[in-house]
Amino acid sequence: MRILVIEDEVKVANFIKKGLEEEHYAVDTAFDGESGLYMSEVNDYDLIVLDLMIPKISGLEVLRKIRINKNKVPILVVTAKDTAEDIVKGLDSGCDDYLTKPFEFQVFLARVRALLRRERADAEPVLKLADLTLSPVTHRVIRGETEIELTSKEYGLLEYFMRNPNKVLTRTMISEHVWDYHFDSMTNVIDVYVNYLRKKIDKGFEPKLIHTIRGVGYILSPSKP
Amino acid sequence: MDFRSLRFKLTLWYVLILGILLISFSSFLYLTLSRSLYRDVDHKLRSLAELIASESTSPLSKFDFGSIDQTLETSMNLKPIGKFIQVLDESGRIGRRSENLKSAQLPISLNALRNASKGLITYETNRSLRNTPLRIITYPVKEQNHVTKMIQVASSLEDVEDALNTLLIILLVTVPSILLIASLGGQFLAHKALKPVDRVTQTARMITSQNLNQRIQTLKVKDEISRLIDTFNEMISRLDQSFRQIKQFTTDASHELKTPLTILKGEVEVALRKKRQLHEYEQILESNLEEIDRMSKIVEDLLLLSRADIGEIRLNREDIHLTPFISGLTEQMKILAQPKNIRIHISNHEAEHEEELHILGDTLRMRELFINLIENGIKYTEAGGSILITLKKEMNGSVNPLMPKEKKPAAFVKIIIADTGIGIAKEDQEKIFNRFFRVDKARSREQGGSGLGLSICKWIVEAHQGEITVESEPGKGSAFIVRLPLYSP
């Protein structure tokens, strides 16, 4: 899952990025409204973390512009503005959740998970497909009775697959949602990671879940496409 | 009714003044009228008496024969109606009388007799006869300087007294009625005039710090009350503004403190989520220390400013010779300027004019002021730039004309600290001395500023009866100009 953090306070942006990355999210940072808005337009993010007091374009303006662009990405506002008025204004301008600084990092993470869950129809906290389950809270992945150990990138990749089951995912989509913008999508890194993941979750289990769609990408599905 | 109320007082005064006016007018009217009526009667009596007297002394007259009425009618063609006439001899014995007296006599007082014997006329009012008041004139008739007889002419005062009584009754009825009506009218008017005052009171009572946006409804008419309302509204506006400023200041201060707190909390929480390498912990602790320093600086500056605001800080003023003072500071600041390869120069006009520039100032605060300004210059100047400090004497004329004249000292020391930095946009130039105002938030935080440095500079300069201004062109640099009163030891 790829997250954009728009925050002008470098140290705040840095610890948010670090904390999120340790939860296997891919994180981009922008230090002002202008570049933040630009990045939200060119990349497909699963969540945006937005500070309101940012230079060049204010956070509220960024919010409105994102919504005017018909971009439905969940937005979590994290700001020092804590009056009722500010919160109402923020939510009415189009953000999905509002967190005031200073905040508890675990609460912040829980809200991130909640907003990502909202994207899916079932909205269950634990992701399930056939006999494979993934918990975004504990990061435990279980196939049948066996717990599977995954690396950070493999976990990120599987979470993205499981949030979009039975859907063909192109290499571009995968690169955009699992890797941050430093990633060069021209390499075959994605195929390498998909193969790692396939070895861990499909080897020795039936039915096979990860299928290759030749020339397009991959699909996570209990049945062969 | 509240007897202390303005409405009651106004009505009372109004009625009192009107009452005094009406009563004096009525008394004047009554007295003048009665005087003129009585004088009129006296005039008529006297002229008749004089006529009779002249007739009686005329050698050709037949005065001593027949009745008086007849005599008057025949000799003078007079028929005095309602006048009683009686002639007495010099000793007061009653002689002839007019017919209308019938058997009655006109009374004559001792006083009148005495006067008459001296040849004086006497007017009297007598009420004993026929129950009607009579006005009597006793007129002595002199022949060869000798009083030979007295003529008494009387007239009833009934008409006069009736007229006066009627007038009195009219006045006694109308004056109190007018006063009553006036007091009601006065109360109504006072009520009407004072109603807006009640409204002002009500609104004023409702206004607290929470609803300072409320205003009293203004009146269409521009009178004293509307001026009061305007003044009141202006006062609320000013209160509102200062409350807003305080609120803004508090919000700004809390925001400033929240950022380092967020960083401290966030970094520590993220760090504690799992075991880390030693160098990572060190890094986090170093970063935390930076934030703690930043917070202490903000708190320190805030404390200083709030103590300055309530006037708690005393300046320990002493003679400072500015040239060595600033060169000394500049030497220290060069250490800070070195990493960015910024040069600091001092241009001293003093040397040229062979004149020493002294001020009376608090050494500690002056150090703070110039260090702040030079540090600011270093922060906002790119590597390789320069800072020029100019010192010169300035006579009064060119100083800010807004400053009250009597406060202006004769001469100033002008200190210009000019950098070749990024400059300040025109619209921001007047705001930079505001507390927590930052042209570039991210940049100034990176530099570790509290956002209060220039506010403190402004306070220091103003506490020394000076002024601080800024001139700047974005991209070219800024010049902070400090003017401090020149001191001649």
Distance from N terminus to C terminus of chain A (CA atoms, Å) equals: 24 Å
Q: Low-confidence parts of chain B, pLDDT < 50 over ≥5 residues?
A: none
Continuous helix count of chain A: 8
CATH class of the largest domain in chain A equals Alpha Beta
Specify the structural class of chain B: alpha+beta
Most residues in contact, chain pair and counts = A-B, 22 and 22 residues
Please outline the helices and strands.
The complex is a heterodimer of chains A (225) and B (489).
Chain A: E1 2-6, H1 10-21, E2 26-30, H2 33-42, E3 47-50, H3 59-68, E4 75-79, H4 84-92, E5 97-100, H5 105-118, E6 127-129, E7 132-134, E8 141-143, E9 146-148, H6 152-163, E10 168-170, H7 171-178, H8 189-202, E11 210-213, E12 217-220
Parallel strand pairs in A: 1-2, 1-3, 3-4, 4-5
Antiparallel strand pairs in A: 6-7, 7-8, 8-9, 10-12, 11-12
Helix pairs in contact in A: 2-3, 6-8
Chain B: H1 6-57, H2 68-76, E1 83-89, E2 94-97, H3 110-117, E3 122-126, E4 134-142, E5 147-156, H4 158-206, H5 224-272, H6 278-309, E6 317-321, H7 322-337, E7 343-348, H8 349-353, E8 358-362, H9 363-379, E9 386-395, E10 411-419, H10 426-429, H11 441-446, H12 453-463, E11 467-473, E12 477-485
Parallel strand pairs in B: 7-9
Antiparallel strand pairs in B: 1-2, 1-5, 3-4, 4-5, 6-8, 9-10, 10-12, 11-12
Helix pairs in contact in B: 1-4, 4-5, 5-6, 6-12, 7-9, 9-12
Provide a compact summary of the structure.
By secondary structure, chain A is α/β, with parallel strands linked by helices.
